[in-house]
Design a protein that fits this description.
4-stranded antiparallel β-sheet, globular, 51% strand, mainly beta, 118 residues, 7-stranded mixed β-sheet
């Protein structure tokens, strides 16, 4: 049974930080590129960051470059998103996403809420 379980969301003041985590199970984690997406109320889901299966390459949305850092631990089947210097516009549900490059097989997590407000 495939599972992607996000954690670490919450309410934080502008300028604050959080560390989002995604624990994967039920598939061969090291074969999959991992991404974080987010969806704000009334908006489409958008790609925030991606890390390749080996961890050698990372890409970020322009809106989060320099503030967010994606990382993974293939031994622990986890992917993390360190989010710093948070802004109210970062408020959204953050989703973990796994995609196998060759086959296109993909999985979504259930999401974790991040709210940035004073």
């Amino acid at each position: 049974q495939v599972q992607l379980v996000e954690s670490g969301g919450g309410l934080v003041q502008p300028g604050g930080s959080l560390r989002l985590s995604c624990a994967a199970s039920g598939f061969t984690f090291s074969f999959y590129d991992m991404s974080w997406y987010r969806q704000a109320p009334g908006k489409e889901r958008e790609l925030v960051a991606t890390i390749t299966s080996s961890g050698n390459s990372r890409n970020y949305a322009d809106s989060v470059k320099g503030r967010f850092t994606i990382s993974r631990d293939n031994a622990k089947n986890t992917v993390n998103l360190q989010v710093n210097s948070l802004k109210p516009e970062d408020t959204a549900v953050y989703y973990c996403y796994a995609r196998r490059p060759l086959s296109g097989t993909s999985y979504w997590g259930q999401g974790t809420q991040v709210t940035v407000s004073s």
